[in-house]
Design goal:
Length: 128
């Protein structure tokens, strides 16, 4: 069973930076695509960033492109979301997710439907 546990969320001032971590447990996830999503109360869960576990090109939502960076550390079985120049509209619960069948399937990696394992989320609050 693959499990994802996010951490690092906290209150941050606008313009500040924060790094979220997602610890991955389980096995055989080298072919996974790792995604970050966020959800504010009463709103739909939306795509933030995605990257293959093994590295490579990344995808970012337009709202975070140039500000957020996603990366993995294989030795620590951890995926990160580096968030810079945070804005109040970034306030949300941030979720780590894994698409276990992305390889060769041309999934829409911006869609929540493409991911089948989710963490429980970590709260990020950006104050003005």
């Amino acid at each position: 069973q693959v499990q994802l546990v996010e951490s690092g969320g906290r209150l941050v001032q606008a313009g500040g930076s924060l790094r979220l971590s997602c610890a991955v447990s389980g096995r055989s996830f080298n072919n996974y695509v790792m995604g970050w999503f966020r959800q504010a109360p009463g709103k739909e869960r939306e795509f933030v960033s995605a990257m293959a576990w093994t590295g490579g090109n990344t995808l970012h939502a337009d709202s975070v492109k140039g500000r957020f960076t996603v990366s993995t550390n294989n030795a620590k079985d951890t995926v990160y979301l580096q968030m810079n120049n945070l804005k109040p509209e970034d306030t949300a619960v941030y979720y780590c997710a894994a698409d276990r069948t992305a390889y060769g399937n041309h999934h829409d990696l911006t869609s929540v439907l493409s991911y089948d394992v989710w963490g429980l989320g970590t709260q990020v609050t950006v104050s003005s």
